Automatic annotation (TrEMBL):
Stored PANTHER family: TRNA (ADENINE(58)-N(1))-METHYLTRANSFERASE, TRNA (ADENINE(58)-N(1))-METHYLTRANSFERASE, MITOCHONDRIAL
Residue ranges of domain tRNA (adenine(58)-N(1))-methyltransferase catalytic subunit TRM61 C-terminal in the record: 70-216
Pfam family, one: GCD14
Keywords of this entry: Methyltransferase, S-adenosyl-L-methionine, Transferase, tRNA processing
An example Gene Ontology biological process: tRNA processing
Superkingdom to which the source organism belongs: Archaea
Alphabetized GO MF terms: methyltransferase activity
PROSITE patterns associated with the record: RRNA_A_DIMETH, SAM_TRM61
Descriptive protein name: Methyltransferase domain-containing protein
InterPro entries given in the database record: rRNA_Ade_Mease_Trfase_CS (IPR020596), SAM-dependent_MTases_sf (IPR029063), TRM61_C (IPR049470), tRNA_MeTrfase_Gcd14 (IPR014816)
Length: 242
């Protein structure tokens, strides 16, 4: 898939597909490449752009609320997620976190309990070009914790589910030595339960952070944090098996 961009407008299309807008019509060439300039029959130019992480956040078909790029950045920074890591993830939801990790070169096994969401996530992994690295499994991850235990250990366990504390209790059985757990929670109550589960499981370096980001505005009068929007997204809890 490729993005066709004109100003603020972006359209996701496959090579060979057509684009019809009020700016005219064009057919995406089969051999389209990043940076190609395509012209509609009305003479409007669109630049073809390969999808990168933020484009996935904006353009993948949404089911479960996706993790925001800034929170994914914190997950990568705090856990050192890298190429060739083995990642166990739940729930898949839209699959934005899984797709980012796949694009890093990690091998991701991700669980989604809603069959329709899982099907959409599989298509999203094709759009992201990571279908070979991200295995979307339909089902409740808690049903498979026993069978996942004893297999090749994971380097990273990423959780974005309400029942994360229950899964964290199994982390020592799932993770390689030095492997990390990262749990995203929209509510602090769930983070507190996650911390208790991590400590009970004997994980080390247990910490919870609130993720806040303030956009700056610069104009003729001066510079200050934007007064629009809320800077808070949620809480991230990290812990390590060692
Ligand atoms: C907030 S979304 C996850 C979004 C995802 N991190 C992303 O970046 O797109 C949470 C998803 O977890 C799924 N879920 C909740 N509990 C689960 C479980 N125990 N096993 C598998 N999936 C689960 C829900 O159906 C929902 O789609």
């Amino acid at each position: 898939m490729i993005l066709l961009c004109h100003g603020d407008r972006e359209y996701l299309r496959a090579p060979g597909a057509e684009l019809h807008t009020d700016l005219g019509m064009l057919t995406v060439p089969d051999d389209v490449e990043n940076g190609d300039v395509l012209e509609t029959h009305l003479g409007t130019e669109f630049v073809a752009r390969e999808l990168r992480g933020p484009d996935l956040f904006n353009h993948l078909e949404r089911t479960g609320a996706p993790m925001m790029p800034r929170d994914i950045g914190l997950v990568v920074g705090h856990t050192g997620a890298a190429a060739d890591d083995r990642v166990l993830d739940a729930g898949t939801g839209t699959g934005v976190l899984s797709a980012y990790l796949g694009r890093l070169g990690a091998s991701v096994t991700t669980y989604e309990q809603d069959p329709e969401f899982a099907e959409v996530a599989r298509e999203n992994m094709v759009t992201a070009g990571v279908e070979d690295r991200v295995d979307v499994r339909t089902g409740d991850i808690t049903d498979d914790l026993d069978s996942l235990t004893g297999g090749e250990p994971f380097d990273l366990l990423t959780l974005d589910t309400e029942d994360a504390p229950e899964i964290v209790a199994s982390a020592p059985n799932l993770l390689a030595d030095g492997g990390y757990v990262a749990v995203y929670s929209p509510f602090i109550e769930n983070s507190r339960k996650t911390v208790a589960a991590a400590e009970e499981a004997g994980l080390s370096g247990v910490e919870t952070i609130e993720t806040i980001q303030r956009e700056m505005t610069f104009d003729d009068r001066g510079s200050r944090p934007s007064t629009a929007g809320v800077g808070h997204t949620g809480y991230l809890t990290f812990a390590r098996h060692s």
